[in-house]
Amino acid sequence: MTIPRELWAVIGAILCNVAAQIALKQSGNSSYPWLSIPKPPGWLAELFNPWIWLGLASYGISFWLTIIVYRAFPLSIVTPLMAASSIVLTVLAAMLLFAEPLGHSRLAGIALIIAGIFLITR
Fold it and tell me: Quick one: the chain helix, strand, coil %, rounded to 5?
């Protein structure tokens, strides 16, 4: 079974969106050990932060893939599907990568999001 190009675009757009959010979160946690000069002040320091550039590139790729997705699928179905999937994956990634808590209310929220995806895509 071959997966259509458009479905790969959906998967890629979702994963790039999640990667961008993770990279931007990590940008706030990073230091600058490769600089032989003191960390620049304020916003100028962010120009040297590779996590911000990775986040920006990931959002750009996600944007491009989303255009491909919108050409192929109904907006009213694919937008909620992609948004909900990004939310669920971001919560799970935050738990695994940043040790953010995943309590009962978040688990219930994920369950409701999955139920909502099921209802919207029927």
Answer: 75, 0, 25
Mean pLDDT over 38-56 rounds to: 78
Distance CA 24, CA 65 (A): 20
Contacting residues for 11 by C-beta, under 8 A, at least 6 apart: none
pTM listed for this prediction: 0.83
- Domain of residue 102 covers 5-120
* CB distance 106 to 94 below 8 Å: no
66's CB contacts (< 8 A; 6+ apart) are 9, 13, 82
C-alpha distances (whole Å) from 6 to each of 56, 73, 78, 110 are 23, 8, 11, 25
The number of domains in the chain is: 1
Query: What is residue 34's predicted lDDT score, i.e. its pLDDT?
Result: 54
Q: Residues 77, 69, 87, CA angle at the centre, nearest 5°?
A: 60
